[in-house]
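User: Sequence recovery, please. Input:
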């Protein structure tokens, strides 16, 4: 199978390239090698792949890259929350317009193959909650007043009572609450519209908190695990926002790459949660990671700080991915985090 992997020099994309070439697929990589993410060609770039350096907005490069492909794995995107809202144009240019340029090129070649796109759990906004009186509820965005007062748990929007978190299925209502989330949902919508008109089949993989080797470091676009590790490497304690009780699902990049291969081999249409199914708090993650370092005095510090646009708990149900494409995460949290303490990361400067 000839597969185009956009963003194939990035954190997740490069692991997908490795998995595909290892089984004998012909892989074309299209990556902009954006200097905010890559200071140079990464040393892990797979020599078995046909690597092409160009942005998705380059019509000639994209047209050449999609020629003759049987499937596309679209990973190219600007990720994370970024610095602040001033990043909005960068996110829209890279994620929305970049996806549109790719889909237009596929349309012009009459592509009817398999399209797998990278999405994110952030499209859900706050996760799923249960109220003892009102059942399943959807809390609104947390107010600045509540956050500043250290009241981080969202209350029931009907009665104000405390809520219990529950796992989020793929058919839960979407509610993107920051720019990155909005662009990921738009990526899903654009790909679905393309599939409907072209006859291609599309699967959107909603990644949860992915970690592992080749994560970017020292970047405002890096994931929280990478930011904590960078602090520890400098002999500084990880600074945990809120009270550290935010629940997330940390899933290893090797598992995520395998999920992409399984999705490429399937014809199942729609969105799938790609998660381990075993949630942990952000403080628990920071403590586990700190415990793998020998540096003294680096226990996590809970700061009480917060970011507008962050959500409290997002815990997915991975059951549909298991049922439809056979994906079940294999890397345990504890051993994965211990390994991550020494995994090679990618410098962004």
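Assistant: Recovered sequence (349 residues):
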């Amino acid at each position: 199978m000839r597969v185009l992997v956009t963003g194939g020099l990035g954190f997740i994309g490069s692991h997908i390239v490795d998995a595909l070439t290892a089984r004998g697929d012909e892989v074309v990589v299209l990556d902009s090698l954006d200097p905010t993410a890559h200071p140079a060609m990464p040393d892990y770039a797979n020599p078995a792949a046909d690597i092409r350096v160009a942005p998705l907005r380059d019509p000639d490069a994209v047209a050449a890259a999609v020629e003759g492909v049987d499937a596309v794995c679209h990973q190219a995107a600007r990720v994370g929350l970024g610095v602040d809202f001033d990043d909005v144009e960068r996110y829209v240019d890279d994620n929305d317009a970049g996806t549109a340029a790719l889909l237009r090129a596929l349309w012009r070649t009459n592509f009817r193959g398999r399209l797998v796109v990278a999405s994110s759990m952030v499209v859900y906004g706050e996760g799923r909650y249960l109220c003892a009186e009102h059942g399943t509820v959807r809390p609104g965005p947390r107010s600045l007043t509540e956050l500043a007062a250290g009241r981080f748990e969202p209350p029931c929007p009907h009665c104000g009572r405390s809520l219990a978190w529950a796992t989020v299925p793929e058919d839960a209502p979407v509610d993107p609450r920051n720019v990155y989330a909005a662009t990921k949902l738009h990526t899903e919508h654009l790909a679905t519209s393309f599939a409907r008109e072209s006859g291609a089949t599309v699967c959107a993989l909603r990644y949860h908190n992915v970690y592992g080797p080749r994560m970017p470091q020292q970047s405002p676009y890096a994931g929280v695990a990478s930011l904590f590790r960078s602090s520890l490497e400098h002999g500084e304690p990880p600074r945990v926002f809120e009270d550290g009780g935010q629940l997330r699902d940390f899933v290893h990049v090797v598992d995520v790459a395998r999920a992409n291969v399984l999705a490429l081999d399937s014809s199942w249409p729609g969105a799938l949660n790609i998660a381990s199914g075993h949630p942990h708090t952000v403080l628990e993650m920071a403590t586990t990671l700190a415990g793998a370092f020998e540096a003294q005095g680096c226990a996590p510090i809970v700061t009480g700080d917060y970011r507008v646009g962050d959500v409290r708990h997002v815990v997915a149900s991975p059951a549909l991915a298991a049922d439809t494409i056979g994906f079940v995460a294999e890397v345990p949290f504890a051993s994965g985090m211990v390994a991550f303490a020494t995994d090679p990361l990618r410098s962004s400067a």
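The longest helix spans residues 88-108.
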